Structure formats: structure tokens, C-alpha cells
Amino acid sequence: MEIQQIVLKFKFHILFASIFSIFIIILIYLAPRFIDVIKYFWPLLLSTALFLVAVVLFGRIAPPVAEAEKPGEDILDFVAGQPDELQPQLHELHEHGEEEEGESSTSKVE
Questions:
Q1: What is the pLDDT of residue 50?
Q2: Which residues of 49-82 are buried (b: 16+ CB within 10 A; e: fewer)?
Q3: Domain of life here (predicted)?
């Protein structure tokens, strides 16, 4: 009688463990063998390994970046199309444009 009470106390635990065990057994039975997966994906695995080797080699071969400038800043300036010489001029044009807008908006109100 005591064993029945203990079993009833843990009936959900036993049920969950049984279902989980059956699920794992079915998954192992239906899943492809590991060697089959390796055979299917060997080109992808090989190319990934070669790419990682190339990254490590280029990381060791490439010269260190100068500390004075940030890496990629020149590319960002080129893409943005605003060289350093134009920045002050653009700032002045922007301020001048805001002043004209402010004057025109006050004249419209009056």
C-alpha cells in the first residue's frame, strides 16, 4: 500500500520520464546516422574550415592599424561623400538656411 501511494505521488514525474524516453528512442531510430550527415555536408564544412583558416592567417599577416586613425573612417567619409574640408562649409550653409527659414516663418505669421 505504501508503494502505491508513492507511485501515485510521483505519477506525473513517471509519465513525463516515460514520454521523454520514448521520444528520445524514436528520435534516435528515425534520425539519420551522423556519418550520413557528414557525407552530405562535407563541402560546406570544408569551405567553412578553409575560410576560418584564411581569416586567422590574414589576421596574423596584416600590418597593425595606426592608433591615430580609426579603422574604416576613410571608407565612411568616401561613402558619405563629405570630406573633412567640406564639413565647416556645410555647417555654415545649414545655419544660414535655418536663419532664412526663421525669418520667413515670422514674416508669414505677421
A1: 97
A2: eeeeeeeeeeeeeeeeeeeeeeeeeeeeeeeeee
A3: Eukaryota
pTM of the model as a whole: 0.38
Segment 23-71, tens digit of pLDDT: 999 988 888 888 898 999 999 999 999 999 999 999 888 876 656 667 6
* Half-sphere exposure in the Cβ direction for 84 (13 Å, CA): 3
Q: How far apart are CA 25 and CA 20, in angstroms?
A: 9
Place of cell 599577416: 61
Q: Report phi then psi at 82, rounded to 5.
A: -125, 90
Q: Which long-range contacts (CB under 8 A, 24 or more apart) does 23-28 make?
A: none
Helices and strands in the chain, H and E counts: 5, 0
How far apart are the C-alpha atoms of 39 and 41, rounded to whole Å?
6
